[in-house]
Automatic annotation (TrEMBL):
Species: Podiceps cristatus
InterPro entries, sorted: FN3_dom (IPR003961), FN3_sf (IPR036116), Ig-like_fold (IPR013783), TypeI_recpt_CBD (IPR015321)
GO MF entries: cytokine receptor activity
Subcellular localization(s) per the UniProt record: Membrane
Every Fibronectin type-III domain range: 156-260
Name recorded for this polypeptide: Interleukin-13 receptor subunit alpha-2
Pfam families: IL6Ra-bind (PF09240)
TM segment ranges: 264-285
Any one of the GO CC terms: external side of plasma membrane
Chief subcellular location: membrane
Membrane topology field: Single-pass type I membrane protein
Keywords assigned: Glycoprotein, Membrane, Receptor, Signal, Transmembrane, Transmembrane helix
Amino acid sequence: QVIFTRKLKFRVGFDLSRTAEVKVQTLLEGRCTDDVEVQSDWIYATFQVPLQGKLESEVQNFHCIYHDWEYLKCTWQPGLLAPRGVHYGLYYWYEGLDHAAQCDDYIQDRGINIGCLLQNVSQAEYKDLSICVNGSATAALLRPLYITLRLHNLAKPSPPKQLVVSMSASEELRVEWSPPGGETPPQCLEYEVQLAEDQGEAKAAWASVAIQMETTLTISRANQSRISCVRVRGRTSIFCADRGFWSEWMQECFSVSRQEDKQLFILIPVILSFSSSLIIFMLIGHCKKRSPAGKPLNTSVG
């Protein structure tokens, strides 16, 4: 990272788990140098936070999600060598804060802080968010965890809303939905649509049919079963983040009669009526064959 400034001091965040290396030089240009840039020699400095405690005493499984671009939820587990009665604190800083701030809304398990909810951190979006989780205990030194996050790469939206499935006159399936609530920018979302056909007693097999940024999709109904399900989920697209978390699914199942089924429904009564007439005709013919032959009448003469 290269920074140009006229000031004699500069504040910037960096990952405290690594050694920070800084070098500075002076640049002169303008009328004093006849518009020729003059550069001084470099001066160098390094900084590293002194390590304390064993590595196994550091918190484990640190994980953060930026829900709906509204609040950041971070969770962790105590280190393997953390003693009973350990107390954890989370501190954070980003460009714009005068000093590091401490979490004021902890998640606890049996009286131990195992997570934190950070509200009102939208000013840290698209900036480096530096976090330290430090532990203290009466009988041991615990190693702090230092990590740098980018909120937009941790975003997880809520599921899409108002999923509606309808059938057009041309036997096409139309799927529509609305963007999720919260502060998630609608223009930053992409959606995955999956379709499942009825498999009888077998478990439905989901197949992805599209990943798109639009909130409507038309699917041909050719060769599909009468009962199906559609589900949709969303995440931050590559236009707004390097990565992100998929939302939970929004699912809708439906049953639609196809044209072939309607034609079959009309044809069945016709077939039954024709079959009934044929059976009656065969019975009449069978009865005639089994009836006795007519005898001539006896007449007397004179």
